[in-house]
## 1
Amino acid sequence: MKHRENTLKHISTLVQREKANFALIIATIYNKSILMKKKTNLLPGARKAGRSICGLFRSQVMLTAAFTAMLLALTAGKSRAAVDPNFYIFLCFGQSNMEGNARPEAQDLASPGPRFLLMPAVDFPEKGRKMGEWCEASAPLCRPNTGLTPADWFGRTLVASLPENIKVGVIHVAVGGIKIEGFMPDEIANYVKNEAPGWMKGMLEAYGNNPYKRLVDLAKKAQKDGVIKGILMHQGESNTGDPEWAKKVQKVYDALCGDLKLKPEDVPLFAGNIVQANGQGVCIGCKKQIDELPQTIHTCQVISSDDCTNGPDRLHFDAAGYRELGCRYGEAVARFLGFEPKRPKMASAAKKIEVPADAVTAETTVPGNEFPKVDGQHRAYFRINAPQARKVIVDICNKKYDMQPDGQGNFMAVTDPLPVGFHYYFMNIDGINFIDPATETFFGCNRESGGIEIPEGPEGDYYRPQRGVPAGSVRSIFYWSNEQNKWRHAMIYTPAEYDLKKNIKKRYPVLYLQHGMGEGETSWSNQGHMQHIMDNAIAKGEAVPMIVVMESGDIKAPMGRGQGMGDYGASFYPVLLNDLIPYVDQNFRTKTDRENRAMAGLSWGGHQTFDIVFNNLDKFAWLGTFSGAIFGLDVKTAYNGVFTNADEFNKKIHYMYMNWGSDDFIKNGDLVRQLREMGIKVDSSESAGTAHEFLTWRRGLHEFIPHIFK
């Protein structure tokens, strides 16, 4: 007997030492006991171990018996090897904050790798998941159409904290709004039938109307693969104020431990606390009963929710709050398991953008929105909700600013101090340009665009509506073009006095005012505030009452391929002369002679103004350009030498004006100098501190109109 015991111990030692060749050892024994004379090719270690075992037995009977015993041991060993002691499994259950209410953001969607696994509790075809089959874990964990849950970043935290040979698996069963009774084995049937609200029925049906059984069934299956190490719960909101809640939770916990043969000391309960919202949480009364849960369940640990951020409902955490709470679950479990907790890598948290108290909502912001804002230093603040975005940029004043996530699904940016005046801007999400939905839109850059007004001080009152100043009207009209055989659109300003009964027979001079390349007939009134400039100048007696006509000029679209500078917008010239002017003269009380007709334009509209006026001096007597796009003009030959006879020119053009910005990329100073050297009377000004932008052109229009029709 003594010899047999020592033999078995020796066999065990050899088998443990030569695990990798266990089958070959048995083959050696088999050869020795059955085939005796037949040799096999074995690894040296296996051959030696097999011979050692064979040498321990004195008879064929004993050798055959050992062979049989080792076959049984091999079978049992294979069965035990299926349970991986380094696969840690955690059960997660509760209501909506465990289910996950916040929309996952970009950093939540990618799987952290094969060390964090999920055994789905329901089928999820869109993600290729089947109930009860392990898969890599990524949000959403619970069910289709759920959100980010604490379990997401709980798993990520454990993966970061535990040795690399340890895997983490979660089984996740949660139902929004469910009471703890919905997980109590003896109460579930009654709860589903008599207490659960109608909107919860579909969620319960997803778990076969028994979420507890679904959790246990999957947990038993998971125990064939790994070891359950803990139970995570987030529940209590629906039982706020229930004095028996702690005892009910204990019944659920005890039932889980009993059904799964778990020792509470080895498998604690980790209970997360509720949304606090600085004491204003909807279920803040539940906090105390959760804090006191360890008094009833001695193996329970409460996970603090202090300072975890929340959504606007003050009931659910936001994405950042779920991440933080999940990390805290993970840190608590890591410590319990004897490991130093480590936080997983998150998207770099940029310095929080502080909005100063003097920042006010921009006048161009759509009502009902807080942002964009502008502060006293002329810095602009932008915010957009884009929870699934990876990279968001705001592009303004020739500079692109990376917008920073705030952890609540929003991205924010603050600019450098911006020049005063109106500026187009765009946002870009993951490479796609779009208009900020919080701003009014303005046609510019060949498309509808976002825009923001950086306010001037009182010096900008000339383009703002003023109390006591009669307001004119900007009318939208459509007229038929015989030249193009289609309807066209124009905007027409009439002064405040135009519609007064006493002026019913009064006629008015007309200014044809053109915008620039890529803008439209609404640009002067929307971006340029021309109506306020006209109202204020007329009210002060600086300008005579006049009608102003604004048309697209066929330059809303970009310059086409093969289209030269002389062609771009030239299709408008016959339309203006043969369709628009006749329409205006027939439908408005105008003075129809050349002495009462002027034209002005900004940028390419200035180019058009030169072309039209200087080729039609019988129809216009006044002219202005603002950052006029007039390139390579030979003043000696242009327009059939119109500038060569200065006396005749100065008699026909009663006032000519040109302006540009000090930082403008189009400056007409050299052209002005050449014209003056030719004897041409031309007035000019440079707008200080402005570029190719509407503040330059507002100033230009304001300086131009007092000199015309006088």
## 2
Amino acid sequence: MNELTLGYDTILRLSYDLLSLLLSVFVLIYTIRIRTLTTFRNRVFLVYVLTVLTMCVVDAAKYIVSITLPKASIANLILDCFYCSLVVFIPVTFLIYVFALVDYFQMVKDESKNMLPFRIFFPILVGFFFIWTSVFYGGSYRIFEYLDSFVSAKRGVFASVKGLTGYIIEFFIAYYYIVFGVIIMIEHKYRLEKNTFTLMVLVFFALNAAVIIQIIHPEIRLETLSFSFSLVIFSLFVQKPDYLKSSRTEVLNSKAFDVIVSDYLLHKYNFKVILLYMEDTVFYHDILGQSELNEFETSIVRKLRVLFRDTPILRDEAHGFYYLLFKNASNQDVEQSLSILDEQIKDRWGYRGLRFDFSFRICVVDGQTDIKSVSELRTFASVFAKQDIYKGQCIRANEIDFTNVQRCFNAEKALVEGAFEEFVDVLYQPIYSVSEKRITRAESIMCFKDDKNTVVTTDTFLPLFEKTGHFFNVNAFAFNSVCSLISSEVFPQLGIEKIGINISIIDSTQQDLFEQVKNRLDYYNVSPMNIVFEITQAAYVNAPNIIAQNFQKLSGYGLEIILDNFGIGNSNVAQFVDLSLGMIKLDGNVIQIAWANSKVGNALKYIVKMAHDLGIQVIANGVETMEQRIWLEGIGCDYLQGSLFGKPLPETEFVNFLHGLSNRAS
């Protein structure tokens, strides 16, 4: 047995180990004391802390044993293998922590998810096998001994092949996981806070610097110190204690709630969320004031805390919104909770000796079937709060037409952010000329790119964007697409003369509408004779005089103006006179009603005649059968549009469709 001599190298080496150990213990105590939520990410971080702490202890013990016992003793061999195993295992925890940081397990596709366990565990199992089998091969344990085992490496490339090979194998496995984690971070950095991504990259380079220094000076033990230092950075800046409860109400803040829901979704737990929304918060804000309203909402939260002691509760940043999270709750448990809420609402909420009659709307969200992410839950809440049809109701999330509403909200957000073209596409539907007996026109219709079968009509889509104040961007997108097609070399070969574009009331009231249109047509070198503007029926109601003035200018310039959706709402003869109309378009619903009802059919016949007497042509929309076509031609309609002549198609398919008609005609 060797004697332990406290020389300079020994003191320096033990000082490194002691400092590393103190840093690791500090992070462990700090992590436990801040009481982070028991989520997957936090559990992985705790494993990471304990692994680094164990590594520091083993490194110190290994050094003491190596200078007090024979080099080839069984204690030395086991500590070497244990230490090398930790060196390989720490990067694995780093990788899994990155997965948790970016919610990678939720985003990865099923086919990739099946291969993920192999990519994570196979390399480390191979490393463990070779590391621990070295115990049974005597002197060959040096293959996996760490840098200080082959001091000759500092003399250059003439180091022993065994030592150099062991170093490469050990760090190749470790770097596989570290690089894997960095790649995942880079691919999904949009899911990280800017500072978080920067700090994670700095930690990566710090670990690399420690390895390079170790290669040049193997006697300097920086590995455990660098890992411990990375722990401090993680705990203070990346794994920071944001996931805490409010000190005033003992309910979760938004980030804490989102983390818990993400964890439940990741592990596919059975859970329910009850959304509780208080109506008329603006009214009570005006009555009570901002500070008093906050105090009152705090009292509501405290009452909820008493009613549901073991349930995570979130008071959202938006006034009047509360989330109750029930894990492993049956439908009976949910019904019981709803009954408790109903009784409390009927009993009225007390505040400073007063009783308030609040109206609440409640929505129950099933975490297994209704949502796939926290953002979907938030969207559910936003849709539920904004739709007046749910006022005062208690409903289930599957009663909400979530897919369509979410798409509209996402498109609205994209519109505001200037990325609208990523969400929508422009389709073209052919219009048949009765007199020429061929397709001579088309209407541009916008749709969502993710669902081209669902045509986004004026009634369902455009009014939503009129409320945002960014509407002209929508029509500008369609206008640019139409002008681009008309100015292309292929357009003269299509045999169509005009393409229609929907225009909203906001566009119609622009003071410089004529100048904008003229500049756009000049930019694309498109004749105004090729363009048709279709103004919606709803847009005309109570419209200011500026609309008539704008349309007179555009009509004089050569554009044709069509009144769309005629026959519904407040259709009247005055619209024929007030606007510079070249044509009216009969609404498809009117066509179907008139086809089924002879009295309405006769009335429609006189409307067509009246339009002709005023010099206005008529398009019949929604034509589906040959019988309807014959009847509409018989009452004098000039143009026909509908599925009988072709459904709305993307530009390329529309061009091919017209080419096919031309080839058959020839």
## 3
Amino acid sequence: MPDPSVVLYMPRRFRAVGEGTTQKMPLEVLALAGPLIERGYKVEIIDANVQQNSRDLLLKACRESVCLGISCILGYQIIDGMEAASEIRNRYPDLPIVWGGWFPSVMPDSFLNEGVADLVVMGQGEITFLEVVERLSSGEGMEGVQGVAIKENGQVRITPPRDLCQLEDLPAMPFSMLDYETYYQSDPGVPFERYLWAAAKNQRWSRQDMRLLWYMSSWGCPNDCKFCCSGGVTRRRWTALGPKRVIDELGPLTTSNRVDVVSFCDANFFVNRKRVFELCKAKQDLGLEFLWHASADPDTVSRMSGAELTSLSASGCFSLFVGTESGSEETLARVNKKHSPEENEHCAELLVRHNITPILSYIVGTPEESPDSIEMTFEQCRRIKSRYPNASITILNYLPLPGTGLYHDSVKAGFVEPGSLTGWGEIGEASYYAGPTFNNLGSSQARTVSRLRNVYFCFIDLPWQKARLGFAERILRRFAVVRVRYGILRLPVEFWAAKAAARLLNTARKLIRRRRVEPVEPNGPPSS
């Protein structure tokens, strides 16, 4: 008798197959596969982000499966996952469909009530999903299973949460299930990583492709930021792999796949600083040459010594994503961040000094945030970008996320909740600037956000994003530098003029090409 099989489906993050993959393997479902394989189950992963015929593969794989597992975050993954679940429901009406991931964890009722899920795994899912699969395989009910939501007699029942499972007690993610080259070929350029690397070294953009590996060395976060859903999903718990385990896994993975960069997608990589620096030392001792980047808090970086920052850089760290969030002390306190605006700037200075590109992330427009507070954030972004042009600064419009401390405040302040899962799928994390978001910005400030994010900062970043700049690009970059340095952010007429000129030039080129290919009418009938 063949081993029982389980199918795991990773929905598309964007509408087009292959769009925005950044070589990212589906770690969310790969983590579930390890315990299942160890228990003797056959596991098949269908990743719609890189597989063109994913629906056909899914229908075929589910023919004799114990269940279908789907993971998603907020955004288009919801829509694609729902469409896949509906197809499976029509073809195999008796096949159980189980959802997980942070968004189903905070809104299990919606998935169960809309009929796309039979059960939702909430929070950390490796052991919970294994127990669910074993119950389904044996025909038992779900009585006593912790950490799930299930619909019984028309009512959604949520069971008590499961205790935290230490990552060291779980098997390694079975990366061998996936073809690395498929992910590399889906986006060989990974332009953002190449830009960060060029900015860290203050070098021109390299045309060489990068081989990127996403890896998770810890789960959870002890912080309680009011705009973030992590606290609600993880209950502020944190567990991590030890340095030896991380290096033992990454060594063969990076060597066999010729990986250039490892992206640690931990929610908070530096919770245990001792672990990080032991990891750096172990990597150097083994002579592993891959570069890496991760996430950190501004206060964590600000407290690091010069020797520690030198150790990070020497170990291959070339960028850190830093949740600076706001330039206003009042707003930082309201969203429960423990650092100060001054630490934001000190953090940027320290990282740039040690050839590590800071990726500084700000959020504007939270409920009750004053116009003055938002202006403080703009001013801080300007100061940092003027002093450290190779710092990457992102300004996000606040997006209310279910399960966060600010969510109900946002609803009270006028945020209109989508009435369906499809509505939630139209907005999202993967495309943070798109879709209907909570708008606590005046029209003038909204324009400032757009100009800083989409015009001025983009032109300042051009030397690290392009191998060679044209004459017009060099001129416009100088204008952007001056505008940001002196705060002249209104009426970007030079950029409007350049855009209009580019459109006219493009139209002229099209007309010329059309004239060249159009057949020439003869002047008269051919002579006999």
